Amino acid sequence: MMKTRGRWIIDASVALKWYLRDELYITQADALYKTFSVGEAEFLAPSFIRYELANALLIASKRGRISFDTAREQLQDFLALAIHQAEDDNGLVNSAVELASSFDIAVYDALYLALARQSGNSFVTADGQLYAKVRDTFSHAIWIEDIQV
Question: Of 22, 49, 85, 113, which has the fewest CB atoms closer than 10 Å, so is most exposed?
Fold first, then answer.
């Protein structure tokens, strides 16, 4: 189990659990969020997390999981959070392309890994397919269930 204090690279699969309450692992995501909200943890993410979360909320509203108005409100809530959104500089993008090729994952997912490697912080995800591909050889990756609540 990993303690919830410190700096974390989070992906949209984690942040989405704060808003879609019918997801798995919401207890762990909520515990991680609580440490952030009381100032015991800092979250970092590539800047495109905003677009990923916005798209996921829109899809959830189209599928009837939440209303469009709720999706819009939740997006505004997320955008107001003080999550440090890393600049996606050329070095980060180049590193992500190498990682994407190495792990056979999307460059978008690899940007989180590249940021974790670059910053030296752990990357927490609730994306089972992504975690399965990186868990054995990418030491910065943490599965959401391994977060201590």
Answer: 22
